[in-house]
Amino acid sequence: MKYLFAFFLCLFVFSIGKNVFAKQLNDTIYLADPTIFLDKGVYYLYGTSSDEGFLVYSSSDLKNWTKPTGKNKGLALKKGDSFGSKGFWAPQVFKSGKTYFMAYTADEQIAIAHSNSPAGPFVQKELKAISGTGKQIDPFVFTDTDGKNYLYHVKLDHGNRIFVTELKADFSDVIPETTKFCLSGTAAWENTAKTDWPVTEGPTVIKKENLYYLFYSANDFRNPDYAVGYATSNSATGPWIKYQGNPIISKKVLKINGTGHGDFFVDKSGALQYVFHTHHSNHKVSPRATAIIKAAFIKEKNGSFRMQIDPESFRFLMQSAAKIN
Q: Which of 202, 322, 275 is nearest to 38 (CA)?
């Protein structure tokens, strides 16, 4: 009888654990190429989700995320309100004055829409992509301390290669003649499959004192070795020197495949964090799961700074029933 009771107790505990695990899987947020934008005490989470546009989740504490809260059935940007018919990828939201902007990819081109709210709707008066040649994806808009705007992006040209172009003051278009090459996949960790189409993508730029840090992901996103590294420069337009300790985020560090393509943000406490995606599991690529991890610049003895990631802080983002006022 004692053993029978123990058997049923174990079965009950296993059942509870299985249900909790299943619920956790169901509550995980699945946005690839994510970005987080903090505005008026609320965090807004965007990412690659569907061919209908971009969903947006919100949270007051980075732990409890509402179901999609965009103005158009959960979408912050809806197909038809701005450029693009499919392939809505890699959004970035930023604010200039009282206007919110979203830079994003659609139809393997880059567009910039605007809104009066981070929840959208993001729209364009004229449905158009920015100027440029060939296929262009993965935009990141950076405004330097002198007020000049730059668009870091990826051109599909003999590989996924990162470029930078100056943007007009009103973000309406780029200045094509200012386009400069930044970097491509030349290091061993950046092309572990040894393909003839090396991939570097998902650029994000931070300026620390007088040095520019260009963070990027390398390898095809379906590769378990998809990972994050960075390069530095004394200028927003390069030349760039890759950090010798790359990659700083990888499956080796976090024990999960496909870690990459995200964006940095500063939380309410002033701490730096990185939001990114991973593979769904170590056996399946999609849908890709959304996660965050803490980061910090560490000062070296020579006075320079390096980026340090805190693996213990890694966690997936979960949807809850919490409401944001």
A: 275
Q: Which amino acid is at 125?
A: K
Residue of 256, 324, 252, 254 lying closest to 294 (CA atoms): 254
**Is 206 exposed, middle or buried, given 0-12, 13-18 or 19+ CB atoms closer than 10 A?**
middle
The secondary structure of 26-41 as a DSSP string is HHB---EEEEEEEETT
In the predicted model, what is the mean pLDDT of the chain?
92
User: Which pTM does this prediction carry?
Assistant: 0.91
Question: pLDDT tens digits, residue range 25-34?
Answer: 459 999 999 9
Tell me the three-class secondary structure of 156-214, residue by residue: ECCCEEEEEEEECCCCCCECHHHCEEEECCCCHHHCCCCCCCCEEEEEEEEEECCEEEE
pLDDT of residue 302: 86
Helix (H) or strand (E) holding 242: strand 241-242
Sheet holding 241-242, edge to edge: 200-208, 211-218, 227-233, 241-242
Domain 31-316: assigned CATH number? 2.115.10.20
Q: Is the pLDDT of residue 18 over 60?
A: no
Instruction: Name the token pair of 180.
Output: 């400069």
